[in-house]
Every structure is written in C-alpha cells, then in structure tokens.
Amino acid sequence: MLNLGAGEVILILVVALLVLGPKRLPELARGIGKFMREMRRQTDEVRSVVEREFYRMDQDLNSGLDSQPSILPVQAPRPPPSLVVEASLPTDPGTPGPAAGAASSEPPPGTVPSSPNGSSGGA
After folding, report:
1. Given 4, 94, 112, 120, which is the most exposed site by the fewest CB atoms within 10 A?
2. CA nearest 98: which of 107, 85, 80?
3. pLDDT (tens digit, 9 = 90+) per residue, 12-65?
4. DSSP state of 99
5. Helix (H) or strand (E) holding 50
6. Looking at residue 100, what DSSP letter applies?
7. What total of structural domains would you count in the chain?
8. Domain assignment of residue 48, given as a range
C-alpha cells in the first residue's frame, strides 16, 4: 500500500511513542483502527450497490433484446393550422398578403405618408 519496509514502520512507531507518550498511543491506534474499519465498510457498501445496479441494468438490457424495442420513432412537430393556411395561399409581391395588416391604415415603414388631398406632407 505505502511500500514501507519493516525498519521504516519501526521508526515511525518509535517517533509516535516519543511524541504522544505511552498513554495516548493506544488511544490513537484504536481511533485509526475504527476509522479504517468504517472506511472499509463504507467502500464495500458502495461497491455492492454499484455492482447490484450494473447487474440489474445488464439484466434489463438483455431481457429487452428478446422483446420488441421500446424506442419509438421521433416525428417532427406539426405547425399550427393558421400557418398551414397562410403558407398555402398564393403570394404576389405587388399585393399585400393577409398577414400584412389589411385592416391597418398606416403606411409601410420607410414611406412618406400622403395627405388626403394628394399632396405630400410639406408646407
């Protein structure tokens, strides 16, 4: 795991004994043991959950091959009926279409509005 030899482990234990003392060293060893035990238990639990889920997914995949596929073909969405009617009308560039605002009395943008007597809006 850490590639420590016997001499290195003994050196670490001697330094720990000198730093912590003979009363706190066993407490530290117990704490490390509990931590390692809990860590191993948690990793084993995660491993078993992952293996169980992979096994279940594999079983679902294998059982799905024998039956009909559950994937349906994708269809493009249909446009609203009002757009279909408008698109089917003939278009003439000289005449305004139904969407051009036939009920609107305003001139198209960029044009000079004319006065009722036929002259342009000058003084």
Report:
1. 94
2. 85
3. 888 988 888 888 888 888 999 999 999 999 999 999 999 999 888 888 887 766
4. G
5. helix 24-66
6. G
7. 1
8. 7-65
